[in-house]
Amino acid sequence: MYISVQHEDFDISAEIDRLKNGRIDLGAIATFTGLVRDIHGEKNIKKMTLEHFPAMAEKELAKIGKKANDRWPLQGLTIIHRFGELYPGDQIVLVITTSHHREAAFNAAQFIMDWLKTDAPFWKKEETEAGTHWVDAKTDDDKKKDRWG
Amino acid sequence: MYISVQHEDFDISAEIDRLKNGRIDLGAIATFTGLVRDIHGEKNIKKMTLEHFPAMAEKELAKIGKKANDRWPLQGLTIIHRFGELYPGDQIVLVITTSHHREAAFNAAQFIMDWLKTDAPFWKKEETEAGTHWVDAKTDDDKKKDRWG
Amino acid sequence: MNILYFARIREHIGKSSEEVILPDQVTTVADVIEYLESLGNNYQNAFAEPDLLRAAVNDEYVPLDYNVSNADELALFPPMTGG
Amino acid sequence: MNILYFARIREHIGKSSEEVILPDQVTTVADVIEYLESLGNNYQNAFAEPDLLRAAVNDEYVPLDYNVSNADELALFPPMTGG
Predict the structure, then answer these.
(1) Which tens digits make up the pLDDT trace of C16-31?
(2) How far apart are CA A12 and CA A15, in angstroms?
(3) Which residues fall within 8 angstroms of residue B33, CB to CB, at 6 or more apart?
(4) Per-residue confidence (pLDDT) for residue A146, from 0 to 100
(5) In chain B, which among 72-111 make CB contacts under 8 A with chain C?
């Protein structure tokens, strides 16, 4: 399990290579990348600032990774979450899961994303032409997490 | 929609860049990569040969992509399927989906993979120490496809 | 009619395509298969398991009761194992 | 007790952390919040919506009725918006 909380950007192919580490027994790799969009609602985003709780962030990502690992037969997983000032088009978060089985890889990646939305100690602030505001948590995200039981 | 049937390997980051094409309105990117495993059942795989139906292959991948596109609000998708002689660790297939919504990206990628398993005109032949054999289609794969209705 | 064979079926028959003149009574893909089986053991072996037989006519998947004529191109192959 | 503030709550209070000596009657996170509210409008504004308040003690998420002492480190923040 590779967990990183970082400001620096990441390269998906390089991260997949890190996870594969030369192994040839992997059947399926799923990835998910979250990006800063240029528009939220009807407002143009100029900048997104991600505040985080440094002492907790990596630990909470690792807990979420462990939950996925306990639930599906994974051969490895990566979670990278960026913080700091990001701009439209920038990558925010990367999840990679690998398994013999494609369903396990897909479900684990989706599960991890659902948990990150509600349990990773990060807070998004958007800067638009109309000023800056904190992004509200979506109750919908709680429901998505809760469906995993 | 970018569809390719090719012998050549692919680079996931490069394919994501091709799909993004500089756009900054993408919120979520899901990818799935299928790989040749070194072991199938209890046999060591030395080589996997993918035979395909050239006149139909790209067309069928495009049909599957269109089905996904009609069903979810995608901003773009890529399907690359390799043919020819491949070896353990080699990449076989890549699906990339992008959407404003992570669920749409995940579901569309999984849907496309399920359809590829049963409807893409490719046939896998494995070479092991015990000889060569054609990989049997799994009835389970039909069920996975059918669950999408 | 031009007929293409793929994978296990191609190997049993020993060729990847051939030109066949259909007898008059042949109207469906299943009829073509029955006719081919009369041509030799290699065809009988290729089509021994009807459940493991799929067809396309003019590059579109079709069921085995699909109507065909000499002008069509038929492809015969086992269930796909792509992805 | 060392208290950390994040995001909207940090901005309302105007600092990211502070050292607070808890009065004797304070036993839970909710009590700490009530005490902090007595310190000024900025705290009242920060905690105006109890539904939008989350807490961690010693780097573990806890409910607001969790027991705390001066030796603990408390963090207060709005619902997370990671991912």
Answers:
(1) 999 999 999 999 999 9
(2) 5
(3) A16, A28, A29, A30, A31, B12, B91, B93, B94
(4) 87
(5) 81, 92-93
Chains that touch C (3 or more CB pairs under 8 A): B
Separation of alpha carbons A16 and A12, rounded Å: 6
The separation between the first and the last C-alpha atoms of chain B, rounded to the nearest angstrom, is 23
**Distances in whole angstroms, Cα of residue C26 to Cα of each of A105, B4, C3, D66:** 48, 37, 14, 81
Counted residue by residue, chain D has a size of 83
Looking at the complex, report in whole angstroms how far the Cα of residue A12 sits from the nearest Cα belonging to chain B.
Answer: 6
Q: Does C78 touch chain B (CB under 8 A)?
A: yes
Contacts with B37 (C-beta within 8 Å, 6 or more apart), sequence order: A24, A25, A26, A27, A100, B45, B88
Query: Which among A56, A93, A134 has CB closest to D83?
Result: A93
- Cα–Cα distance measured from residue B69 to residue A1, given in angstroms and rounded to the nearest whole number: 33
Does the structure show a pLDDT above 90 at B87? Answer: yes
Looking at residue B30, its amino acid is A
Residues of D in contact with A34 (CB under 8 A): 83
| pLDDT tens digits along C23-56 | 999 999 999 999 999 999 999 999 999 999 999 9
Instruction: State mean pLDDT over D17-31.
Output: 96
Which residue spans within chain A are E strands per DSSP? 2-6, 28-35, 39-40, 43-52, 74-82, 84-86, 91-99, 122-128, 131-134
Residue D74, strand partner residues: D3, D57
Contact with chain D for residue A24, Cβ under 8 A: no
ipTM reported for the complex, 2 dp: 0.94
The Cα–Cα gap between B82 and B10 comes to 9
- CB contacts under 8 A, A 100-129 vs B, are 100, 102-103, 105-106, 109-110, 113
Tell me: the pLDDT tens digits for B49-86? 999 999 999 999 999 999 999 999 999 999 999 999 99
Residue B40 has pLDDT above 90, yes or no: no
Distances (CA, A) of C28 to B10, B81, C19, C32, C72: 41, 32, 17, 6, 11
| Residue A57: how many other CB atoms lie within 10 Å | 20
Task: Find, in chain A, the residue whose alpha carbon is nearest to that of B23.
Answer: A89
Q: Give D50's DSSP letter.
A: G
Nearest residue to A30 (alpha-carbon basis) of A72, A83, A62 = A72
Q: Pairing between strand C73-77 and C2-5? A: parallel
